[in-house]
Specification:
The protein is of the alpha/beta class. It has one domain (1-236): Protein of unknown function (DUF3299) (OB fold (Dihydrolipoamide Acetyltransferase, E2P), Beta Barrel), CATH 2.40.50. It is 31% helix and 25% strand. The protein has helices spanning 2-9, 14-37, 40-64, 117-131; strands at 86-87, 143-156, 159-166, 184-193, 200-212, 219-230. A hairpin with a 6-residue loop joins strand 5 and strand 6 (219-230). The model is unreliable at 1-63 (pLDDT under 50).
């Protein structure tokens, strides 16, 4: 069913589909760990941790004004950004012929038991598929501008020098990371002061392709940003 939904919509509802897949992994991991623990004390600990994590997530959502899985509205970039950068949607970063479920056709998640070794194998396969997700080669060397959420990686004193740019709120923080072809590793030309996790920004620069890893997820693209400006939601 999941595969059918993915193929039918082909990223027309990109963020929703990716968020659905991320939720699948998170839920499945929880059920597997719970089955392996198998005692009430561990279950109680897991329940308390889940409640605490949920509280943190809700607090972050309230502060940011977004809910986990929310994507930025389509809006014009600031006039200060030169039109020499092509505005690029996140869907364009995904090759049209990529099927993320191709390597999992023989797995039936509904029939896997918590204690089944195939469960952990399935999780590992999902992670490998996402971490090695193919990129759109035609974007190599293209000057683009794209809006997204910031996940800081490197700091210099009180400023961010490198970060991951992701397409929806909570990615890599409150949910597992999206596929590598939906993560851009950004190197700022100038340190960004007072930047925080999940800040919304427009990033303009030359896009390069190539996989890399970080504590927050694997990226399929890299960009040395020429211009980074705040993203502002359009008034409703």
């Amino acid at each position: 069913m999941l595969k059918k939904i993915f193929i039918t919509h082909r990223f027309k509802f990109g963020a929703a589909v990716l968020f659905l897949l991320a939720t699948l992994i998170l839920t499945f991991v929880g059920s597997v760990i719970g089955g392996l623990m198998g005692n009430r004390s561990q279950e109680a600990f897991a329940a308390e941790k889940k409640e605490a994590d949920q509280g943190k997530k809700e607090k972050a959502e309230k502060a940011a004004g977004y809910r986990v899985g929310d994507r930025l509205s389509q809006t014009k970039p600031p006039a200060t950004i030169p039109n020499t950068y092509a505005e690029t949607p996140w869907e364009a970063l995904v090759p049209k012929d990529w099927d993320p479920m191709a390597g999992l056709k023989n797995l039936n998640f509904g029939k896997l038991k918590d204690s089944d070794p195939q469960a952990m194998e399935a999780l590992q396969k999902l992670k490998e598929v996402w971490d090695s997700a193919p990129v759109e080669a035609s974007l190599r060397g293209q000057r683009i501008r794209i809006a997204g959420f910031m996940v800081p990686l490197e700091h210099k004193r009180d400023a961010v020098t490198e970060f991951l740019l992701v397409p929806y709120f909570g990615a890599c923080i409150h949910t597992p990371p999206p596929p590598a072809n939906q993560i851009i590793h950004v190197v700022a030309s100038k340190p960004i002061k007072n930047a925080m996790s999940m800040d919304t920004v427009w990033v303009s620069g030359t896009l390069e392709v190539g996989h890399d890893t970080s504590p927050w997820g694997a990226s399929g693209y890299k960009m040395k940003a020429d211009i980074i400006t705040p993203y502002v939601e359009p008034k409703k």
